Amino acid sequence: MNIQWTWQGAGAALNKQNGVDISRFGPRRSILTIENLNNNIHTGNYTCLVSNSAGNVNHTAELIVIVPPRWIVEPTDRAFAQGSDARIECKADGFPKPNVAWKKAAGDGPMDYRDLKGSAPGMRVEDGHLIVASIQKNSEGYYLCEANNGIGAGLSAVIFVSVQAPPQFEIKFRNQTARRGEPAVLQCEAKGEKPIGILWSRDGKRLDPKSDPGYTIREEILTNGVLSDLSVKRSERTDTALFTCVATNAFGSDETSINLIVQEPPEVPFGLKVLDKSGRSVQIAWSEPYNGNSPITRYYIEFKMSKSDWLTGKDRVLVPGNQVMAGVYNLRPATTYHVRLVAENEVGTSEASQSVTIITAEEAPSGPPTGIAVEPVDQHTLKLTWKPPLKEEWNGDIMGYYVGYKLASSDKPYLFETVEFSREVGKEHHLMISNLKTYTEYSVVVQAFNRIGPGPMSKEVTQHTAEGKPEQAPQDFSCTTLTSQSIRVSWNSPPLVSANGVIKGYKVIFGPASTWYDEKTKETKVTSATETILHGLKKYTNYNITILAYTSGGDGIPTVAISCHTEQDVPGPPMAVKGVVMSVDSILVSWQPPSEPNGIITQYTVYFRTTGEKESEPKPQRVPAFQTTYEMSGLQRKERYEFWVTASTGIGEGKPSKSVIVAPSSKVPAKIASFAEKVVATHKEDVKLPCQVVGVPAPEIQWKVKGSPLTQSDRLRLLPDGSLLIKEVTRKDAGIYQCKAENSFGSDAIMHTLVVQAPPQPPSIALAGTTGTAITVRLKSPTDSAPLHGLTLHYKQDFGEWETTQIAPTINEYTLEGLSCGTRYQLYATSYNGIGTGEASDILNTRTKGTKPSVPSAQKFIEVSPNSVTLHLSSWDDGGCTMLYFVVEYKQKHHTDYGTGNNVGGWTTVSNSVKPSGNYVVLDLTPATWYELRITAHNNVGFTPAEFQFATLTVTGNVIAPARNNDNDKRALLELIFPWLPEWVDYNLLLVFLAIIIIILVAIAILCVALPRRKSGPESVRLRDEGLYAQPDLRGMTLKREFRDELGYIAPPNRKLPPVPGSNYNTCDRLKRGQGGWNNGRKMNGNGVSNAYEELVDGRGDYDCKYNNPPVPPHASSDDSSLYSKPPIGGGPGGPDEEICPYATFHLLGFREEMDPSKSAAALTLPHPPGHGHHRGGSQSAPRGTNTTRYGKGPVGTGVVSSVAGGGIVGPGGMIAPPNNVFSPEYDDPANIDEEYGYGSPRRGTAGRRSIGSMRTVPIPESPSPPPPPPPRPSDSSPSSTPSHSQNNQSTNSANDSKESNELSEAECDRDPLIKTRNSIGNPPNLSTEEMRRLLEKNEAGNSIPNGLTPYDTVNV
Question: Tell me, what's the pLDDT at 1017?
Fold first, then answer.
């Protein structure tokens, strides 16, 4: 079929004009060819249509024409003003459309172009155009514009964009550092249009190098600006400033600032102080120093021990520079350190600060003691030695050591003992640990302690105590007889727990039972087995056997002796044989039993035979065992016969005895068949001494006793067979006994030795020595015939039971151990032998050594902590006696609460049975509190109490201040004054003793001054015999007890002072209170001399303090009479104050006057007027009449004073009106003593009568009535004591009155008149001593004194 081809173009004609050519190649192919493609013409879709008669088909293809880039606008070099918006075009065309991109050279040259991203702010590319908003100098440079669409090499154009700007500094401000002393260069580089001028200023002040030679300026022209250098020749601290560089050109100016910081090493740190310290660290703080314009990067804390040097012995701690507080650690406790500080910055380090001395706090030791060794001393003691811990582990001063020990197998805690620290360098410490168990392993530890507490324990060291003696005997002990000379012995070992060591073997001790008491007869066999055979024993002998185990420590306890008997054997030969002729055909053979029977003799066999040329066969003749003689008869006269004897036991016949040859004879001389023997007899038994005699004619027997012929008696009797019988032998019977037989053919004699064995005589006992638990005595037993088996020592405590111990007879000195310490004992000894026990020795009285416990020092005994106190009980000296227990009590100091139970009297009982070993801790105490501690230590002798004071530590472990205590202050003062006094001195007693000495010295001094003044010195101060005493007015004053003591007041004796010659002495007799006046008349005594004393009388008769009622003052009504004394109703007895006049005499020490006995009869005293109160220290006193007054009346101008006690005014008619106030003096009253304690009684003395009168102001209205006067006493019924009822009557016998009254001194009686007088003289307010002296002198001169005083009136002061 014919095929049609058709082409359709992209919109342009498909013709050759457009460069399109269509060609066919055969019927089935058509080709469209385009030459010189044009993007605008040929680009599009081309369709090929093919059709024939059968149909049509088409195919479309797209043609794209690509074109390489070509410039539309090519960029060129541009210049912009700084700050303007810059726009640079770069446009290209091509297909596909080219991509336009801009790049900027990284450097100053046209190379190394980089994308514009981040090059400068405000720079962007829009539609191929480069846009820079507000262009700046930094945007100046080479730019590259590239156009590329992937076709060909693309397009590129390089342009230079210049920015015309004023000078500009890239850095407006910067810091620059320089080191002090080194040069520094400051640079500022200004970029901009040249020319550019540079100016420098310092802190705003322009710099001129010419005027400041320390600075130099240099400039360098650069391609893009100017570089200016400011040089500082030598940087100093003052160069630290702000330097400004100003650049200027035609377009403007700019500036930059450089802050120059001159740096240097820091200054020395200061203000170094310690904030806190402990045993191993110190916290310190300081003040930051000047840092040298460079931040301190670090501090160095340098420290060293005080003995080291800073070069080689220092350590450092680094501290960051921003800290001013740090800690130094890993120090040693209780060590002196020097600490200083160094600061460092980037420039260098400062000088070291002043060092601070620091002593770290103590800590418990950090290391254990060294060189610990334990070795046994004996079975109960271990010796422990050790050395102190390493010095760097002490952490303080070592005070001592705690040594703990316990059984190695025990889980119980250690028992501790305290050992003091030895200050000797290198010296080993040691401790004897005693009272341990024998051969027992113990664990021992040691720890050191200081003031803070104990350190770590050492490693446990174990050691056995020395081996001791086994405490128990071997067990299952038995013996078996084997032969007549051998015994088998077997046993088992003692229990292992009682061995006290390693059993090395056994000792079998054996000996005959008959001599078991004698150690010399015993034998010992040593074996290591538990069975042995004893050989070589005596035949047929009873043996005692005992066995003991032994170790290195010695022999153990032996078993109880058991007995075994060896078997029988043939006996030994009879000891001796005799043959004596009895007749012509008989011979008597006698013998002694064998010395070694070796069994029970069953019979004897007597052998005989003829001798001569032809010996006959021996012929035996058996004899019973009880017979030791045999008469051989029927013998031949001329033959000689030989005899011998054998003994037999159940085993067989023994050896023959020696033979004797005898021939019968017609002559039979006297012979004794018996043998001389040593006969041992027991005290009080009958003894028969044999003497069998033969002979023809019968011999005459003679006995001699101790060389004297026998005198027979009831005790000594000669038996028919010739034997001597002694009944109930005694020691006196012992001696030689001779038996002599004699006839006509001869004589024979034997001698027996009689030994009488009696109980031993008493031994002697003497003291050899004592210890705390033992008494050693010397024993001596007298020699005796019977062997001494032993001694018994009897002993007991006082009021105890007797105990005994056995002692071997060979021991001369014995130690009795295990006794009570410090206790009295009684001892005596007895001896015993085979016979019995002898008499006792004298009793020895002695005592073991030992005293009560003694108190240790508080430093050794007490160790305090904040909440407890540790008591080192081992520091007590036990006085040589084992401590039993302690009683521990405590209370807070000054605690006065009285409780019950365990808190009696404020004391708290911690325990009343504290064991004495180790330490004891009292817990639950209050920190920083003073306590009193009471310890009572008990041992066998008694107990010792002791009190201590201590203060617990504060919570931080510090010591509190001492408690304020006057006693302690006194003691401290006395210790300061008398440092040589020992501690045991009681300072309170010492003060009393010193006070007594001072008082005695003062008294001696007063006596020495006073005695010379009795007869010398001015008359005003001379001690005269007149009894005048000058004293200041005492009205209104009370003399206190201590002042009385200082004045040396002594109560007067029962005697009077001598009267003053020529004086008008006033006595109690004249102190009458009535309405009458004084009696002017005087009674003459027997010598024609008027009496020195007068009596006061009134119309009713005499009144004194013994009889009548006191007058009622006229101004008092009848109702007021009750206020005054009245006679007792019914004449009954009055009160206790009514029988005596209780005056008191007041003597200054050294001023006491003695009484002249010759004048005692002339002295008269009266009882104290009623109402005068008195007080006597130390004696019984009558009730005090308080606020009492006495009144009296007398004529005025009579020369006699009517006085009122306490003062008053003389009224009309001489009546005394009572004053408003009465001075009531209080005095010791020697008369006011019960009869039981009266004068002359044993209990009377002046030591207890120390009070002195005091003047009291007493108001009158409240005065009670004085007690009524007493009734007359029986002794007062004599005429001399009868009062006168006439006013003019005088006492007829004042001497008798004086004897019957209480014997009071004149001063006692004459005290009140002065008081009355002084109070009646207008009551002078203050009468001085000098005024009183002048008054007395006027009295002596005879001048009349107003108100009635006359010369030589007695004045009491």
Answer: 56
